[in-house]
Amino acid sequence: MSLDPRSFRKTLGCFASGVTVVTTLTPGAREPVGVTVSAFSSLSLDPPLVLFCLGNSTSSMEAFKTFGHFAINILSERQRDLSIRFASRSEDKWQGVPSTTWNSGVPILSGCLANLECSLVNVVDGGDHQIFIGKVEKLKHQEGGNPLVYFRGSYMDPAPSSLTDVV
Predict the structure, then answer these.
(1) Which residues, 6+ apart, have CB-to-CB distance to 93 below 8 Å?
(2) What is the average pLDDT across 84-112?
(3) What is the CATH number of the domain that holds 103?
(4) Predicted pLDDT of residue 74
(5) Terminal-residue alpha carbon distance, the chain
(6) What is the Cα–Cα distance from 147 to 144, expressed in whole angstroms?
(7) Among candidates 83, 73, 72, which has minimal Cα distance to 36?
(8) C-alpha to C-alpha distance for 10 and 141, rounded to whole angstroms
(9) Residue 5 lies in a domain
């Protein structure tokens, strides 16, 4: 059976996902690189591994493959503008973006729900994407707050806080 690519994409869009910006540095000049990614997942607790996927046509692919470290910045509902900025091909993505660095020097975006600094363990071919596996070396998260969520091709509006507190 042959699947229609558009139907496949629309069907997968029914799975709500959090939004991240994955960052690294170019190996030579050590210039910051960042891209919006919703294909992110935990992989293992012991050792602590995560994965994210990049499309083969991503312009910053070589930086992610060669620098050896990356950061996963899990965006809050208030960071929609960062998601849009890092999804663009703009040359000035980093202008005015508050960030810091940890051990590897990779940019860690400020104000996120969580940040994970990782060392690259492996890159696996995944069809029209590459799957990056990293070992978490350092992390932080904030208490409270809601994630930025992507569903059916658009961002979901934040839920009223009274609904988010239900266990």
Answers:
(1) 34, 85, 86
(2) 95
(3) 2.30.110.10
(4) 98
(5) 42
(6) 10
(7) 83
(8) 32
(9) no
Amino acid identity for residue 31 in this structure: E
pLDDT tens, position by position, 120-142:
999 999 999 999 999 999 999 99
The 10s digit of each residue's pLDDT in 141-155 is 999 999 999 999 999
Total domains in the chain come to 1
Q: Is residue 2 assigned to a domain?
A: no
Pull the structure tokens for residue 156. 């979901």
Any idea how long the chain is?
167
Average pLDDT, the chain: 93
Residue 10 domain-assigned (yes or no):
no
Tell whether 4 is covered by a domain: no
Residue with tokens 């658009």: 154
Residue 145's Cβ-count burial label (10 Å; 0-12, 13-18, 19+) is: middle
Q: CA dist 13 to 8, 16, 84, 148, 155, Å?
A: 9, 7, 18, 15, 11
Q: In whole angstroms, what separates CA 154 from the centre of its chain?
A: 16
CA angle 151, 80, 10 (to 5 degrees): 20
Model-wide pTM > 0.85: yes
